[in-house]
Design a protein that fits this description.
The complex is a heterodimer of chains A (304) and B (416). Helix content of chain A is 34%, strand content 15%. Chain A contains nine helices and ten strands. Chain A is α/β, with parallel strands linked by helices. In chain A, the strands form two sheets. Chain A has a six-stranded mixed sheet, with helices on both faces. Chain A has two domains: 189 residues, HUPs (Rossmann fold), CATH 3.40.50; 94 residues, no CATH class. Chain B has 416 residues and is an alpha+beta fold. Chain B has seven helices and 21 strands. In chain B, strands 7, 8, 9, 10, 11, 12, 13 and 14 form an eight-stranded antiparallel sheet that branches. The radius of gyration of chain B is 24 Å and the shape is globular. The chains are: A alpha/beta (304), B alpha+beta (416).
Chain lengths: 304, 416
């Protein structure tokens, strides 16, 4: 933010920030028990930064919830812990393994971990009595997301009904809930992938190292480069090679692909993103590839 | 100069080529990614189209793709080197008024599309009326499918004159009429070689250059308080800040201010944006204001100037767009949300229903049905800090909520 504005204009990034902060403050004021869903990825780090700014110099007035699928990058957990300890927020971890052990979630061996995140998340929301969950979803990510409200109502089963969404006008958000229902709140709905990177560069904030170019042992599956890990056994014919790569999104290690890249600074990443011709999810997210409506279906069930 | 932002709403039906136009804007500005394009190409082939159906880019939900219609407001993003654009894409068919009002509520500019072969229709007039009612300051009429009328200047002139005449009855401060072919790409991003007679801007040039910063109110100070920040920590033991997004005017440290509804006055001690003290705040900044005196301020209050404050009132006269099946009737009780303030409202009277096609006022009406707009008198349980919507789109607007279902059922714009 520059010191004076002779022409009283705000850059688009400042406008996006102001809108997001407004949403954080609205939801924190109106919901009894909000929580911020945190994956450790770049979008949720930007979310934490915006929440920090919204309530400064007070601490963020709600906890942070992470769904641990047991398949996250170790670098992501390290970055998360540094953020959480610097901000002094409470971290709630809901683990899929724990949910399976307690019989809340059934692992039939066929369902991906990504699918199991949904019941684990819904259970964590219910058990903790959270009435609102901030998510880092962006409308530019995917076609189904493009139609989702900033305040996205979920019924008592956690379901999203795209045809019954509440109209959302001006910056007036409707936070009315019935017992057992909750709201998903998306403060960065109007940001694009490039905005996120511009903001990270502008703010100089820490993100996990996996976003920057590094040497990694990878193999190819379904046209994606996946990392070598004991959690993801090689299939016949798959060969591991060492390449210079980086991640555009940070999800499940066994499903999230990396891209070959030498971008090792934020500036280089911004250049790369600006020139990219494939969406971040299309390029690197196995979980979105199952069908054209993969995201729509998962969202209806209560996915992030 | 850093990149700025333009929010615009598009209105028109599938038949007018609206989805194709948006697809064209995204495609020609290189905002479409190859995986998205491949998916559209594949679907176009599956459907047996002989061309790449760009409208498929914007039809998001499966039921929409199956039925070939757009159900809901969808938001799209693209950028050119100087400006980022947020498109609120509103459908032409189902729930038309409700969606259009929603999309237009945040728009700086409205884009109305007509088919050059058919000229102005009842629907295009209705689009213009709604954009005017929502006080969208800039309007662009795109006369589409010029390729199907041999790029005729006469067709352009006729529709343009007819629309301009109609627009004089409305509140449209800025109007531009552009002949295009979304399918062929004429005058969307690249200048048409088939319409030498047209010397105006291409659509993208106009969108990039239309001046929106001056649309904001920089005179009347309005800061609806959203949240009171009291850290009570050792470092900030006595800190007490009033957080909100500036809805109007310019605030500076030292300014004398009045807090409503109490009417208490004080001076601004400082304005904080995160860890920095800033010299001034203006719309749409989200800031935290500290006052010199220990006055009682809470969420729902408004910080304004002593001699320029909104009117606290329990009697609200507004235009209301009704958005649900069960009609709005006198004596009905609803929840109302206005800025950061919530109250209950009683419908005292429905004065008239506005026919958005003819602008005729139906004084005989006893109720407002779904997608109808009318002038309504409300009585609220506590005073709201109101401005006319024509003066301030933030402090002049409200939503109505059904107390039983929790659903947003109405959108209101306060009259002068």
């Amino acid at each position: 933010m520059t010191a004076t504005h002779a022409d009283y204009r705000l850059s688009q990034l400042d406008q996006l920030e102001a809108e997001s902060i407004h949403i954080f403050r609205e939801a924190a004021a109106e919901f009894e028990k909000p929580v911020l869903m945190f994956s450790g990825g770049k979008d949720s780090i930007v979310m934490l930064r915006l929440a920090e700014k919204a309530f400064f110099p007070a601490k963020i007035p709600f906890p942070v919830l992470q769904i641990d699928n047991g398949l996250d990058f170790p670098e992501v957990a390290e970055t998360r812990d540094r953020w959480v300890s610097r901000l002094g927020v409470r971290l709630v971890i809901a683990s899929i393994d724990d949910a399976i052990a307690r019989g809340i979630v059934v692992d039939d061996g066929k369902t991906s971990r990504n699918r199991l995140q949904t019941p684990t998340l819904l259970n964590a929301i219910e058990e903790n009595g959270f009435t609102a969950a901030f998510g880092g979803g962006r409308r530019d990510e995917e076609k189904a997301r493009a139609k989702e409200r900033v305040y996205s109502h979920r019924d008592e089963f956690g379901q999203w009904d795209p045809k019954m969404q509440r109209p959302e006008l001006w910056s007036l958000y409707n936070g009315r809930l019935h017992e057992g229902e909750h709201m998903r709140v998306f403060p960065i709905s109007n940001w694009t992938e490039l905005d996120i990177w511009d903001y990270i560069g502008h703010e100089g904030i820490e993100i996990p190292d996996v976003y920057f170019a590094h040497q990694r042992r990878v193999f190819e599956r379904d046209g994606m480069l996946l990392t070598e890990t004991p959690l993801n056994p090689l299939r016949e014919g798959e060969v591991v090679t060492e390449r210079t790569v980086r991640y555009r999104t940070c999800g499940d290690m066994t499903l999230t692909g990396c891209v070959e890249s030498t971008a090792s600074t934020i500036e280089q990443i911004i250049e790369e993103v600006a020139a990219a011709r494939v969406t971040e999810r299309g390029a690197t997210r196995g979980d979105d590839r199952f069908s054209e409506a993969a995201m729509e279906d998962r969202k209806k069930e209560g996915y992030f | 100069m850093a990149m700025d932002l333009l929010r615009f709403a598009t209105a028109g039906s599938v038949d007018d080529g609206k989805s194709t136009l948006i697809g064209r804007l995204l495609f020609d500005s290189k905002s479409i990614f190859t995986d998205q394009l491949e998916s559209v190409e594949k679907t176009s082939q599956d459907k047996g189209h002989g061309y790449v159906d760009l409208s498929l880019l914007t039809d998001g939900l499966r039921s929409e793709r199956e039925q070939g219609i757009t159900i809901d407001v969808a938001y799209r993003y693209f950028a050119t080197p100087n400006r980022k654009f947020i498109i609120a894409d509103t459908p032409g068919h189902v729930q038309y008024t409700r969606n259009m009002v929603t999309g237009a509520s945040t728009a700086d500019l409205g884009l109305v599309l007509v088919d050059a072969r058919h000229g102005l229709t009842e629907q295009s007039r209705r689009h213009a009326v709604l954009l005017s009612l929502l006080r969208v300051p800039h309007l662009v009429l795109c006369i589409n499918k010029m390729d199907l009328v041999d790029y005729s200047e006469e067709v352009y002139k006729k529709i343009s004159a007819e629309f301009t005449a109609f627009a004089t009855k409305l509140n449209i401060p800025d109007l531009e009429v552009i002949p295009i072919s979304a399918l062929q790409g004429d005058n969307v991003v690249t200048r048409s070689t088939s319409m030498d007679w047209y010397s105006g801007p291409t659509l993208i040039h106009h969108l990039e250059h239309v001046h929106v910063a001056s649309d904001r109110d920089l005179v009347d100070v309005r800061l609806p308080v959203q949240y009171v920040i009291r850290p009570k920590s050792d470092d900030h033991h006595d800190y007490r800040g009033y957080a909100g997004q500036v809805a109007g005017g310019v605030l500076k440290p030292g300014d004398e201010v009045m807090v409503l509804p109490s009417g208490m006055t004080s001076r601004i001690a400082g304005i904080d944006l995160f860890d920095q003290e800033i010299p001034e705040a203006f719309p749409p900044m989200s800031v935290t204001v500290r006052l010199e005196d220990d006055v009682d301020v809470s969420r729902g209050d408004m910080i304004s100037r002593v001699k320029n404050a909104p009117e606290p009132s329990q009697d609200i006269d507004a235009m209301i767009c009704w958005m649900t099946n069960a009609p709005l009737r006198p004596r009905q009780k609803l929840a109302i949300k206005h800025t950061s303030n919530s109250a209950r409202a009683l419908v005292k009277d429905i004065q008239y229903r506005l026919d958005v096609n003819s602008l005729h006022r139906d004084l005989e009406t006893k109720e407002l049905g779904l997608n109808e707009i009318g002038r309504v008198q409300l009585r609220t349980t506590k005073p709201l800090l109101c401005d006319p919507y024509s003066k301030n789109r933030t402090t002049g607007s409200f939503i109505l909520i059904d107390e039983a279902t929790g659903v947003t059922v109405g959108a209101g714009m306060i009259n002068d």
